Amino acid sequence: MEFTLNGQDRTFDGDPGQELLAYLRDVAGLKSPKDGCSGEGICGCCTVLVDGKARLSCRMAVKDVAGRTVTTVEGLSPEERDAFADAFVLKGGVQCGFCTPGIVMKAASLLRKNPGPTREEIRDGLNGNLCRCTGYKKVIDSVACAAEALREGRPVAFPGGTGAVGTRHPKYTAREAVLGERVFVGDMVEPGMVYGALRFSDHPRARVLRVDTTEALQVEGVLAVLTARDIKGRRVNGMIYRDWPVMVLEGEETRCIGDVLASVAASTEEAARAAAGLVRVEYEVLPPVTDIFEALEPGAPQLTDHGNVLSVTEVRLGDAEGALRTAAHVTRQRYTTQRIEHAFLEPEAALAVPWTKDGEAGVKIFDGGQGGYEDRRQIAELLDLPERLVNVVLVQNGGAFGGKEDLMGQHHAAMLCLATGRPVMLRFDRKTSLRTHAKRHPIVMDYELGCDAEGRLVALVARMHSDSGAYASVGMKVIERAVAHSAGAYAIPNVHVKGTAVITNNAPCGAMRGFGANQAAFGIESSVDELCALGGFDRWQFRWDNALTEGKATATGQVLRSGVGVRACLEALEGRFRAAKYAGLAAGIKNTGIGCGMPDSGMAKIEILGPQKVVLHHGWCEMGQGAHNMALQTLVTETGIDPAVIEVRVETDAETRCGMTTASRGTSLVGNSVREAARGLKADLAAGLTLADLAGRTYRGEWVCDWTTKVGQEPPEGREIVTHYSYGYAAQLVELDGAGRITRVTAAHDAGRIMNPTLFEGQIEGSLHMGLGYAITEDFPYRDGWPVSWKMADLGILRTRDMPELDVIGVEVPDAHGPYGAKGVGEIGLVPTAPAVANALRQFDGVRRTALPLRELRLLGRGK
Ligand code: FES
Prior knowledge:
About 30% of the residues lie in helices and about 25% in strands. It contains 22 helices and 31 strands.
């Protein structure tokens, strides 16, 4: 059959039923259409034009385009390409960029029909395209900007600027992302590349009696089938506790449906997946333990050697129970939050290639994860190789939000690469992604909060139980963070909070944006509003009066010494709060840095290659949030180097060690380490040397915080409790109209120093989108150890039409340790959102909601 692709005639004599998206990507080599939902047709990442109309290429076969014209981003006119690329860069409509080419194609079809759309028309036109990063506001701004440029036949005008900290410097490689030219791991192709696939457990809990690879090995194209017996090194892995088996051995019990029993490498992805399905497994099926309270019963099956409790965190300040007994007003309530899925639009992918270092054989891994050095450590242990023979290149990924911290496919790709001697691509489809990576913890929280007759908080007693699922991941840290943030942004003199992380046969739960602080915020902020109702207190004033300030202590007993911006955030909202018909208010706090007795550190290396090329190495993952900009803009600020000559790289061979990109610490640690690295370069430039003179030189820098205190432990003699070296602060206001629909969310955030206003706003707007979803629709329920639904459509991710007006207010109360005073903003954007929504509804109809998600679609204007 024949058709036209991007203006060129094509003849196709393959399988006419082949999915058009697969053809475009794998045969035609066009990488702008992305596969985000594995054919479900709900994400829009694969949107192309067919005869000028926007169509989902994952829902079409090649035969459907016989005699027709197909256009991808690569085939748009030069004017359209420039307009979209420049507009998205200027307006900040691109973060991770995975959704962007699909959105551009939808927008192109819209603008060809209607060159002057209103914002509402753009919003409605893009409703079929999901974006997990931006909150859509800047996407709509970008399309409006592109439309204007195209209508007026002129380029998008950039204001220019130095690229220094504080400027709206364009996001690093954003233009390439818009045009689909910046490759994600799953887009990569290597000569001789083969494909990997995994065989998962058929049961959440079962003893594995036999794993038989005979049939799988007979599939044409199969090169290797590996089981747990083939692992040379450390088979059981994990970021903190080593409890997560790379593959389950015969004789062991599976603990969740994401457990891997075998891996396959084959010449095609189809052959690898087919062979994985032919690995035969015999089991003794056991009843799964799926309820946290049943798991804690004395007679419950014990899922680990140490029982079903992963960890317990407890904090005590004063006499909380005693203070509650004498409090003038006390609210007691159980609050529950749900498991949700990260739903980053790029499913996990890893490419492992044979690699040599100083003549010794190793492996290089193009990795879409969140921590190159952590991944390298675990992969080297698994392969029984020294770390120097494992080189992890962190490729900018298509969103992560904490869900790409644990190893998912990187280690399997590496094993298969060594077994076959070939480059191995291992890409997860959406179902595999849902099946494997750790989720946000459901937490059951029993809150008791009391205040005196004047409205001063006097005591908090709380019990928290999280479903941490099958493996530790960072579950003990999440419950620790929930406990540490249990008092929210308030100073409470008497606190007794205990959190227990429970092991079950459900999906492992781990890091997700907010990391326990969101759940705690729902408990404390709902409780604060209930106290205000009991005592007749003004909700804004009560918060302002009880807010953390310098000299007051958090729930862990850390006395904050400087840079506390809670009151400034509340003050930014007071006018709107007073004017709103139905206003929901919530404050928030979120740590910057892991802290809690663990070191936070980062390294940077500046390589001067010549006057036109400076390579800036750091260790942090760019997942859309802007880590590369933070590094680059810091270097520009310190040295005045032209940002256009700076290339940013993350590769473990550069030995710029750091941990996971987590805990809102990237800006802080990359900024401080680049500043340290820039010292020598700055001095050399000040001495009159040029980049040409300095070609061949490298400069290194490191910044370490090793003075934090484990939660619940006393600090060393003579030192204060420092749970975290820095915190971000926020307050948010959700306004409802007379029909109970959210009309606007105003988010005031103390970022310490706003390093890049466009990226700052983007982080908060994207967080608000995620926070509103968390509040109202998002859920990933399990039954008997299995997801109730495998559909991405059922995850409850909000679309363009669901989004209210978003207004971000930047507050800058400088931090003592952050670069230029900066605090982390990656997570706090959704910490106050869900309770602010619930508190708005409480004003609307007087009913206190205690469980997330609220499932009240009228909030979104979707009927009742
Ligand atoms: Fe849209 Fe990341 S920028 S999904």
